[in-house]
């Protein structure tokens, strides 16, 4: 899956001439129409990002853990404060690539200027429905998550549950959902992980997503899956991610598994 390259792996400012209607901002359709009508195969726009996001060459970093999305030739990339610029590359009208960087970093592209971050998030979240290549749609999810004020958790979970979509896209959606603070994400991920009708790759992605949640949510859910998930592979995956945790409950859990409750 594309996404974090180091892992298993845009509001107040608007378009210059007119304010988009609330519905347009929520759907991303107006931005999609502007991009479709723009001349050339390379189109950019930029939007405000969350305060903990820094925009890097060919990507971005987020939070104190210095997690990166993007690709570099070596070393830590140069990162600056937002806004973030998105490059949409098309071939024969089809979106083939999505790239990120500081404003002005994609020379020669048709620039649409600054857009509402909620509109940008909605557009990037729905690239799959706009005919984009699957890997481009995956990369779009990353930008949808960091747009200032956006709450894409529900949309990401809907993508993750949609069995008509490419498996890699679904797995990417579950990963990015795990990065959201939305209430109930852990329960939803656990339900997908335990779904007997689901593909194993998607179940495993849901388990990994759980492992990315705060320990208070992740550890009990992973323990429950390790004990009761219908599929052996899911139980093994839950045990693996528990073994990577430094939560104090995990050693006792493994001891009980190995020695039995009376050990």
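-> sequence recovered:
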């Amino acid at each position: 899956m594309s996404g974090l390259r180091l892992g298993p792996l845009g509001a107040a400012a608007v378009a210059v001439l007119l304010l988009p209607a609330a519905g347009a901002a929520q759907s991303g359709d107006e931005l999609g129409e502007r991009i479709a009508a723009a001349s050339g195969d390379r189109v950019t726009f930029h939007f405000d990002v969350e305060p903990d996001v820094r925009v890097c060459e060919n990507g971005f970093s987020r939070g104190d853990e210095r997690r990166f999305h993007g690709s570099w030739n070596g070393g830590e990339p140069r990162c600056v404060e937002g806004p973030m610029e998105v490059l949409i590359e098309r071939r024969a009208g089809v979106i083939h690539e999505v790239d990120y960087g500081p404003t002005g970093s994609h020379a020669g592209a048709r620039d649409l200027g600054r857009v509402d971050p909620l509109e940008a998030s909605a557009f990037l979240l729905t690239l799959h429905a706009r005919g984009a290549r699957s890997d481009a749609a995956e990369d779009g999810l990353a930008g949808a998550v960091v747009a200032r004020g956006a709450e894409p958790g529900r949309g990401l979970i809907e993508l993750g549950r949609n069995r008509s979509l490419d498996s890699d896209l679904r797995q990417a959606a579950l990963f990015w959902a795990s990065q959201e603070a939305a209430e109930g994400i852990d329960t939803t991920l656990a339900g997908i992980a335990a779904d007997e009708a689901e593909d194993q790759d998607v179940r495993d992605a849901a388990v990994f997503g759980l492992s990315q949640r705060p320990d208070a949510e992740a550890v009990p859910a992973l323990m429950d899956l390790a004990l009761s998930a219908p599929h052996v592979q899911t139980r093994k995956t839950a045990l693996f991610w528990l073994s990577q945790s430094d939560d104090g409950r995990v050693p006792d859990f493994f001891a009980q598994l190995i020695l039995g409750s009376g050990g």
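Residues 1-24 have pLDDT under 50 and may be disordered.
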